Each structure stands twice: as structure tokens, then as C-alpha cells.
Fold:
Amino acid sequence: MKSPEETRRKRVRLLALVAVLVLAAGLRNVIASSPPTYLESATVVFSLPKSQTAPNAYIIFASSLITSGEAMSEIMQSPQAQRKIREAGGTAKVSLALVNLYDEEYPNYGVPLATLTVSSLDAAGVHRTFAIASGLLHRLLAGLQSGVGVRPHNRISAQIIGDTGVAAQPGSPKRVLAGLMILALVTVSALWNALDRRNARRQCRGRAPGAGYRAGSLPELG
Structure:
């Protein structure tokens, strides 16, 4: 027959499990009802000047193109450029990053390509901001070269290709559900361990000193 303490412990565990499941179900409903994020992206190709028509021109100037792309990525991410986008009517988040041919730990920026990405909860704001950011990118690139005396036919240019248009990014319901299940399991396990430790401490405090010895079981002293 189960002791009252064991019955109480199982009841507390069941209540903790129900509470965690209810909380996980609530979070899932909140995430499912959240509005989707809209995104528009395109590839930016940094191209050689029109004056460079030799067959091996790309091999010679590829590193310069990549360096220019890296510089423009940093400039577009700067507070000054972001402020210009907002002043022109842009309301969405803008990012420009070189294309990474490997991974984040060991990046490989081996081609003069960058990805222009604009995202927001407002679809109309995404497209409007994308157009503003694209125009600013062209103006900044031309202005920087003009400022150091580079003539138009010797300037690097930026071509935007593969525009995805505005698309909703609702996320993956399966990944959300899997993540919530893992979180719920971890939370339940932590709660049960905490309850077990609490019960163990209560039992230790409730045990009288010397209760673990039988009468006459203490060893005789010298």
C-alpha cells in the first residue's frame, strides 16, 4: 500500500506536468497567431569597370571586388546609412552581407557577391525599403569612387539580380512544436528533480538524531 507521502509526491508531479503542458500549449497558440514576417532579398554582384575588358581582368581584380563588397556591406550596416534609409521613408530592417561559401565559424568570402535583405511585418514597407536601400547602395558606391577621382568608365558597379520579391516567412510549425516539446521535457525534468531534492531535505529534517540506530547497536567504548 502506498504511503501518504508517496501519494502526495505523485500528485505534485502530476500537477507540475499539467502546468508545463498547459503553458507549452499557450505558447504554441501565441506563436501560431503571430503575424508573418515579410522578406525581400536579392544578390548584389560587384562588377569590373567597363574599361577592364582583358580576358584575365577578373582574375587580376577579383580580390579588389571582394574588398569593395566588404566595404559596402559595412557602410550599408552603419548607423549613418540606416538613418538615410529611414529619412527617405524606409521602415524595414536592411542588411547587406557578403556571400559566405562555407560557414560562420570558418567563413569563406571568395566571390564578389553580397546578399541584400529587407524584412518587416509590413509587406508594403519591405518593398519600399528595398527600393530605397538599392538606390542608396548605388549612390554610395559611385560617390565613394567619385570622391577619390575615379572616372565613370573606371568605376566598379553593383548589379542587383535574383530579386525574390516580397514573400511571407511564416516559419516552420513542425520546428516550433518540436522546440516546445523539448523545452517542456527539460522543464518537467528540472521540476521533478527539484521536488525530489526538496522531499529528501524534508525527510532528513524530520528524522530524529540517532533514529537510524537500533537500541544497543552502538559500539562499546574502551
The two ends are 45 Å apart (CA to CA). Strands lie at 37-47, 93-98, 113-120, 157-161, 167-169.
